Amino acid sequence: MYFDPEISETKLEIMDEKGNNKSTILVGEISIHDFKWSKDGKKLIYSISSEDSSAIYFYDFRLKIKKLLYSNINEVSQHLDISYDHSKLAFSIRNKETNTGSIAVMNIISKDCIKIVDGFASNLKYSIDDRIYFIKDKNIYSINDDGSDILQVTPDSENGIFSYDVSPSGENIIYSRFNEADFLLQYDKIGNQHQILFSIDSIAVNGLDYIAEPKFTPDGSMIYFGHKSKLISFYNLQTKKMRHVYYGDSNIYHIWLIPGTEKIVYTTNKDWMFNILTIGIDGESKTELFKTSSGYWDLKISPVKIAF
C-alpha cells in the first residue's frame, strides 16, 4: 500500500513475483491500516477508514467479490491475521472515542465476533494450534482464540519488543527488543526457556543495527531477515551458522521468501525512492519490480501474488 502523489490517493495493489499482471484492489482518499493474505492465497483481507467509515473487508480472488466483514465508525481495526483453516480473523481494535483497545476474533462465515483481550495490542499472529500471539505492555503473550488460557511468553524487561515471529509448528518464537543487542529463541510457550542465538551488534556493518521482520523458513529450520546494515541473511538454527546472501546499497525493510521458488522479495529506500525487488537466495539475479517516490508502507506475499 502506498500514497500515489499523481492522484493524491492511497492504493493497494497486487502483482505476481515477476512484477507482471499488476492490478489495483483499492484506491481512494482513505487510510489503509493493514492487510493480510489467507494462508492459501485466495483471499486478501484489509482494514480501512475514512472520515465517515471504518471497516474490514475481504476480497475473494476465485469469486472476484468483495465482502464486508466488520464495521464500526468509532473504531480503527488493524494488526489482522487469519487462522490456518481460514475460518477466523483476529484483529486489534482502537476505540477513537474512549481511546481504549482490545483484541477481537471473528468467525468469517457467520460474522460472529468476540473480544478476548482488553488493552492495546499489536503484531497479532495466528499459530497452527489456534493460539494468537501478540505484543502488549512490552512483552509477547499468547491466548487461545476463544479467549482462554492467556500466557506471558517472554520474560519481563524494561525494553519493548522490536520484532518477532512464531515457528510453523507453533512451538517456538524468535524475537528482539529495543535497545538490546541479543536476538533470542524461545523454547516454550510460557517464557521459561530461551537462548541467545547471536548478538545483533556482531552482524552490524556500520554501527547500530536492527533486524527487520525476522521470519522462520517454511520448514522451521532457519530464520531469515533483512537489516539496517543493508544485508539479507539466513541463520541455521541447527548448525548455528549465519549466511549473508546479499549486501545492498540501501536499508532492507520488508522481506519474504516467495513460496515455491528460490527467490526473496524485499523493499528498500534509497534517495527517497521506495523499491520492491526480488533476488535469488544465492544472492544473484536481482530484479526491480516496482518503484515509487511516494510514501511506501507495507508488503505481503501469498503463494501466488504479492500485495503492496
Structure description:
The structure is a single chain. With 308 residues, the protein is mostly beta strands. Helix content is 0%, strand content 57%. The chain is built from no helices and 29 strands. The chain has strands spanning 2-4, 9-15, 23-28, 31-37, 43-50, 53-60, 65-71, 75-82, 88-95, 100-107, 113-118, 122-126, 131-136, 139-144, 151-152, 161-166, 173-177, 182-186, 194-199, 211-216, 222-227, 231-236, 241-247, 251-257, 263-270, 273-280, 287-292, 300-301, 306-307. Strands 1, 2, 3, 28 and 29 form a five-stranded antiparallel sheet that branches. It has a four-stranded antiparallel sheet with strand order 4-5-6-7, with no helix packed on it. The N and C termini lie close together (5 Å). The mean pLDDT is 83.
Major pleated sheet: 5 strands, antiparallel
Alpha-carbon Rg, integer: 19 Å
Number of strands: 29
Q: Which sequence of SSEs, written as H and E, runs from N to C?
A: EEEEEEEEEEEEEEEEEEEEEEEEEEEEE
Separation, N- and C-terminal Cα atoms: 5 Å
Helix content: under 10%
Which stretches are poorly predicted, pLDDT < 50 over at least 5 residues?
none
Q: Return the structural class.
A: mainly beta
Number of helices: 0
Mean pLDDT: 83
Shape: globular
> Beta-strand percentage?
over 45%
